[in-house]
Every structure is written in structure tokens, then in C-alpha cells.
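Example complex used in Figure S2.
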Amino acid sequence: MGQLVVNGERLLANLDRFAAIGATKKGGVNRQALTGPDREARRLLAQLAVERGFSVFQDPIANLFICRKGRDDSLAPLLIGSHLDSQPSGGRFDGALGTLAAFEVIETLEDFGIETERPVEVVAFTNEEGCRFAPGCMGSTAFASRTIPSGWSSLRAADDGAEFAGELAATLQSLPGAGMRDLGFPVFAFLEVHIEQGPSLEKEGLPIGIVTGIQGTRWLEVTLSGQTAHAGTTALIYRRDPFHAAVNALGSLFAAIMPSDPAARFTVGRIAVQPGAVNAIPQTAAFTIDLRHPSSERLDEMEEKIRAVVHDAASAQGCEATIRQMFDMPPANFEAGILSALDRAAQERGFATRRMLSGAFHDALFMNRVAPSAMIFVPCRDGLSHNEAEHVEPEHSVAGCNMLLAAILQLPSLVIVTG
Ligand code: HGY
Ligand code: MN
Ligand code: MN
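Predicted assembly (419 residues):
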């Protein structure tokens, strides 16, 4: 069998079609989890699948599966894919590239009549981003643990306050023709193509990155409470101003955490001050912290420091502080066997690559708990992501897709028999 290559034109056309769903004026997408645009993208993928004779399933957390049969469908499937949901001002490649590259791979197998020993399934995991409903990676977390945490159903959306349970039900109902599966099933292996969301590959002029693992992530929600009072009549000594406490705490944390450790990532992405009146000292100041590091021990140390600094800053202003951990994703390393299949695939295709750690979390982190998993990165312009200007050169999208195809052909016991 000559070297199989994907239909790059078709992949690029699909990327454009999906980028039109939830498109923003600046060329990005707003396709947040369990919203109308998210449902529209899932419907389009399901429609494309049915047109190719693939079967479509979803599970109770609305993970979407596109199944291409193998010779023995009792065998655990190879799963390839990513996510279709996006950030509120996200890019058109984050998640979509991995999902559509996976779909292009099974279309290519179909085009060339390639029969596989086991089913090959494309998956679009629900709510990878976690910005509308926290935590992120809800779909892959629930799949890997085979449970939906009871606390999730009453979660409220950060954008419009909608309840998670209702949005999930509406999403499931938006694909009436899809079969229903239980939550979680045995998986042979999981592979995910994704943009690097960092500058390394572009800087080094490499088309492909072989991802060896993912750093740890923790999300904290900090709420400082003081006493609202008149802005004009309350002298300093009578104030218990939570925003003043927040500014002091964040000032010292920004000065301490990242400058002292190049591997640390500390981000405050959301802040809210209540009651939000111009002329009233705030009652509460609440903000989120996204904390990342390749080492769990360092994450513990940084979280300890954050807690101490926040509590000191609060008491210095006569305020209270509560800190809730919203999300804790320990770092993970991918399995050597699947990584060597990726090395062989890159060699066979002549792709120059480097091995690297992912700074962003991905569904592969959770899938790695239940099946050998790995990721293939492609460069994105200036390493920019979670930004509407996110861009991937067409040849890199196609290279990532061909690398995925080559990788699955390298996987042992995914016996490929030609038609
Ligand atoms: O935040 C992340 O790391 C992922 O891109 N959602
Ligand atoms: Mn992503
Ligand atoms: Mn993302």
C-alpha cells in the first residue's frame, strides 16, 4: 500500500465551515460549551458522519462519538479527536483542528477502503475549555471516571447563569438521531492533534511536536468579604475594603510567583466586585486564579503561598477570605509505547519533530488515565491561542492530520487490511 495521505483540501474546507459557527467579528469563534453554536457544530459533524455512513453516538455528558466500523467491533476502539467548544473569544483551531483532523483520517480510511481490525472512532469531548462551566475537561473527566459528579448539575453558566443540567439536556436533545451509549467504555488508545498554543515549534521551524506529557493545573476561586459603606463619608480607619485587600494580595503574588520560577504560570482571568456601585466601598471582591506547573510539589508550595498571602492581605484590611479549589489536574506523562509509534510515524513521513510538554491541559490528560494516550502538536502563529487572532498555516494543519494518520497506521494490533 503506497503512502496514504489525507485530503488536505477537504480538511481545510471543513475547518472553514466550522469556523463559521459562532464566528466573531475579529475572525475567531465564540462557541462556548452547551450553547447554540456548540450544538450547531455538533449537528454539522453528525451530519457529515451520517453522509459517510459512519454511526453517531453520544453519552450522558454529551461526548459525541463518530464510529467507523472495524473487522471485529467487539474490540476496544481506537479513539481520536479533541473538542468543539471554544473560549468566549477563542480561535478557530483550538479543539476544532483535532476533531476535524480525526474526522479527516476516518474519511481517508473510507476513501481508500482500508479495513481496520478494530473500530476507529472520532470523539468530540464536552466542555474542554471550562470557561462557561468550570471545571474544564468535563467530558473526558466523566468518561474516564465513568461518573458525572453530582455537584455539576446545579452549576451556573458564567455568561448567562443558565443551569448546567438544562443546557446539557438541551444539547443531548439537539441530536435526536444519535445513538446513546453508557458513560465510558474500554479504549485501545487515544490520540489528539492540537495546536501548541505556545511559541516553541514556530520558533524552531518545526511542523510537528510529539507531546510527552501535560503540566499540572489548579483553578482557585478567591472571595474577599468586607463591609460596603459610603465612598465619601468613610475614612480609611473605618474601611474594611475587600478590593483593597485583593489588590495588595495580587500585587505581591504577581511579584512573587512567576518571576521566581520560569516554569510557573499564575493568571487572574476573572474578577468581580460587588455591589459594583461607583460610590460604595465594595462588599466583596472575587477573582479566579489559574495556576500551572510541571511539578505537583511546586503546585502545592505555590497554592500554600497564595493562601497565606490572601489571608494576610484580608486580615490587614479587616476582611474575611475564602479560597475554593475549583479544579485540580495533576501533571501526567504519556506512555512510552505510543510515543515511539509517533516517532516512527514522523520518521516515515519525514517530519522534523521535537518532544515537548504541554503547557495547556487537554482531554488527553484524562484519557491517559484509561488508555495509552498521546498528542501531536502543530505550530500556531506567535504561539497565540485563546485569542481570536489564533492562526495555523494550512500546511501545518494538513501535516498534523497526516501525522495522525501515519501514527495510527503505526499502532500495533490496529491491523490494517486493505479492502
Ligand atoms: O486552559 C487550557 O489549558 C485549555 O486550553 N483549555
Ligand atoms: Mn483545546
Ligand atoms: Mn483552549
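Residues 83, 94-95, 128, 194, 362 surround manganese (II) ion (ligand 2) (CB under 6 Å). The chain has two domains: 8-214+331-417, 216-329.
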